[in-house]
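Retro notes (design track)

What went well: tokenization of the new backbones is finally stable.
What didn't: we kept losing track of which sequence belonged to which structure.
Fix going forward: every design gets posted as structure first, then sequence, in one message. First example under the new rule, 573 residues:
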């Protein structure tokens, strides 16, 4: 009976992981699509991305305070109560959390609204004020949505999280494109009240488009919360029935005590996310101001200087950060699935399995990160021209080539962060991120204002500082991991083979693109090169025997893949 129950729990867990993985991929793809579309809308472009991105980064920082860590904290407390049949206490935790985070969310929403002008001035662009006002209601609803997700995660029901994330992003994508396009075409509407508003306030149409895009984000967030609320109401009858059927005596706790328990768990989990959000906001607060200092002698008007600085920041936030962040979404899902596997092995005293899973995860991370980094470096210009044909800028290609190298260290830090959490070293990732953030801030302040430093200065300085900061964080995390558990790393298998495979893929991509560009148009050539690079990468992984039999068993459908490769004599049985 216990064996059967254990098997069902494992299946339930894996189904939950898979649903979250699919949701994450869908969310990232939809996010990429709508950002591509609005960036290519006439009048939005890099300047619109600069305004849109600056306000959004400050918003995500407040979200890190109000909601990141909440689902895990609620999930942990609820699952502990349900495991011993305390259904009413679990529901009381949910109700208390809704009260607590409605207060926290409302306070932070109000603060963002009230201090929007002050924050916009700190960013160095007064146009960002409207964006923050548009986003301010969303903080409250994201906070409440996080509580509902955590409650159902504690019941091992991941549908609430995965479905709501996908629906919210779908609404966000459709509404953002619609709202921005309406503003772009508003000149066709005679005697529009919005045109009068623009003229009376001397507001740039690009600013209104950026605000409209963030209004769409807030509306999508509210719709996502409404879906979760309906989801809860649909399951409420069953929840009440479980409470009535529970044979465990209900012991009422003061709400203040429950709140303390929730905060005691959610705050440590949130620290790393808050620092990560602060890290992203370093660019928000330093890039535009630094570029304005650098460009002040190049232009006669301060307005022109501000617009140019905002445009360059828009390239970074609206193009580069999106592309560089895409590989991280794949690795987040993988690392998340691995954390309980590592902690479970440690809890059972199976150190050998824990070591095996850690080394395997590091290798997978490199096999995701290295090809993505070299591909974006080699094909920077063609990729940008393919995705942003109406908003292509020469500065973006250099910036992408530099920023691509952060992919490797960012992904390694994700995996090592999950590993350290599995090993019980929950504060190390936060410390490493904090040290990296200080380094990034100092380098941004030093490099961005120096246009005379060539590739190291100006907007490129933000990319250089990110590489250095993420590298330092990686060194700290790696040392802490090796100190916590002695890894039997095979240098040749873990590092050298992936690097060799990546270099071959990079060289083949470079020369294939040069060949195809002579006979095909650039866009088609770029798509074909990417497809060829993926196929070459897969073949080389097999040829160089990067995975052994035990590695294949840890991959999805790994046993089937291994049997097929042995059947066609690629691998020995």
């Amino acid at each position: 009976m216990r064996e059967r129950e254990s098997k069902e729990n494992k299946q339930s867990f894996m189904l939950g992981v898979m649903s979250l993985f699919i949701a994450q991929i869908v969310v990232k793809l939809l996010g990429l699509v709508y950002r591509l579309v609005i960036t290519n809308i006439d009048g939005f472009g890099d300047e619109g991305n600069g305004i849109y991105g600056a306000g959004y980064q400050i918003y995500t920082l407040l979200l890190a305070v109000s909601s990141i860590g909440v689902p895990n904290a609620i999930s942990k407390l609820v699952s502990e109560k349900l495991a011993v049949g305390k259904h009413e206490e679990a529901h009381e935790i949910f109700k208390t959390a809704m009260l607590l985070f409605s207060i926290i969310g409302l306070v932070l929403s109000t603060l963002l609204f009230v201090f929007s002008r002050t924050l916009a001035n700190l960013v160095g662009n007064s146009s960002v004020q409207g964006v923050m006002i548009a986003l301010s209601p969303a903080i409250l609803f994201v906070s409440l949505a996080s509580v509902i997700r955590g409650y159902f995660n504690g019941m091992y029901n991941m549908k609430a999280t995965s479905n709501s994330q996908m629906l919210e992003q779908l609404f966000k994508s459709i509404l953002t494109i619609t709202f921005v396009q309406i503003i772009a075409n508003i000149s066709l509407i005679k005697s529009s009240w919005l045109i009068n508003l623009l003229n009376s306030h001397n507001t740039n149409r690009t600013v209104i488009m950026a605000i409209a895009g963030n209004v769409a984000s807030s509306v999508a967030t509210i719709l996502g919360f409404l879906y979760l609320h309906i989801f809860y109401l649909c399951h409420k009858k069953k929840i009440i029935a479980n409470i009535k059927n529970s044979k465990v005596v209900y012991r009422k706790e003061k709400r203040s005590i429950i709140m303390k328990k929730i905060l005691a768990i959610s705050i440590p989990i949130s620290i790393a996310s808050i620092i990560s959000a602060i890290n992203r906001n370093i660019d928000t607060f330093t890039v535009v101001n630094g570029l304005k200092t650098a460009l002040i002698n190049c232009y006669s008007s301060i307005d022109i200087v501000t617009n140019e600085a905002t445009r360059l920041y828009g390239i970074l936030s609206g193009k580069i950060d999106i592309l560089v962040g895409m590989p991280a979404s794949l690795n987040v899902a993988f690392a998340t699935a691995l954390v309980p596997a590592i902690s479970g092995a440690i809890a059972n005293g199976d150190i050998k399995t824990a070591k095996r899973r850690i080394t395997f995860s590091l290798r997978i991370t490199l096999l995701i990160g290295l090809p993505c980094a070299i591909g974006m470096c080699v094909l920077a210009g063609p990729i940008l021209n393919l995705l942003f044909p109406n908003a292509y800028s020469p500065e973006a290609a250099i910036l992408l080539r530099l920023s691509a190298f952060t992919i490797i260290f960012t992904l390694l830090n994700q995996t090592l962060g999950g590993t350290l959490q599995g090993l019980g070293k929950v504060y190390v990732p936060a410390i490493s991120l904090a040290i990296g953030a200080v380094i990034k801030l100092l380098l941004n302040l030093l490099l961005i204002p120096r246009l005379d430093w060539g590739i190291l200065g100006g907007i490129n300085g933000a990319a250089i500082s990110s590489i250095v900061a993420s590298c330092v964080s990686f060194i700290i995390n790696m040392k802490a991991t090796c100190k916590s558990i002695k890894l039997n790393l095979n240098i040749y298998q873990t590092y050298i083979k992936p690097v060799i495979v990546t270099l071959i893929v990079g060289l083949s991509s470079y020369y294939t693109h040069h060949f195809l560009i002579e006979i095909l148009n650039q866009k088609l050539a770029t798509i074909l090169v990417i497809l060829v690079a993926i196929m070459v990468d897969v073949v080389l992984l097999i040829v160089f025997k990067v995975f052994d039999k035990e590695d294949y068993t840890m991959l999805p459908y790994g046993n089937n893949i291994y049997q097929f490769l042995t059947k066609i004599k690629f691998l020995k049985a």
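Added context from the reviewer: Residues 16-253 form one domain.
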